[in-house]
Amino acid sequence: MPPAALPSAAEADAEAEKILVHSPVLDRLEEFFSDPSVTSAINDFCCAHASVTPLAEGAEHPLEYHTAFLEYAKLIEEQVAAFMAEHGFSEEDIVIAALHAPPGVHTCIDYLLASTEYTAFLQLMGQFNSLADAVDDTNDYKDS
């Protein structure tokens, strides 16, 4: 079997164009979600719902988890609406940019995804709780 042909430079460039690391929408959205007022709102939410953690596969989730998910979705929806009003981007602009963003690069995409997918929300809450635990452990160490 002959080796697979390597893509031409033009094909490689075309493929790279599909993945947006930087775009006006993503850059502004990332900046917006990094603003202290937004990060504080998300942090406050996570602190208020710290009991929401990922459960073992197949475990029954308390109803409060879904209620918290809906509250988080509303919080992010309000933040995105403020972003769109401030910067003049549409939902379609955001969706298109998000679809072409590489995974794990933009925190704002993680926030958006967690507002639309329950499992992503649980993962976000788990990450927040792990970070909060690490900070607590560090503070305990400093106090001793």
UniProtKB/TrEMBL annotation:
Matching InterPro entries: BART_dom (IPR023379), BART_sf (IPR042541)
Domain BART: 24-129
Keyword Cytoplasm applies: yes
Lineage top rank: taxon: Eukaryota
Keywords annotated in UniProt: Cell projection, Cilium, Cytoplasm
Residue ranges of coiled coil: none
Cellular component terms per the entry's GO annotation: cilium; cytoplasm
Subcellular location: Cell projection, Cilium; Cytoplasm
Protein name in the entry: BART domain-containing protein
Organism, scientific name: Chrysochromulina tobinii
Taxonomic lineage: Eukaryota, Haptista, Haptophyta, Prymnesiophyceae, Prymnesiales
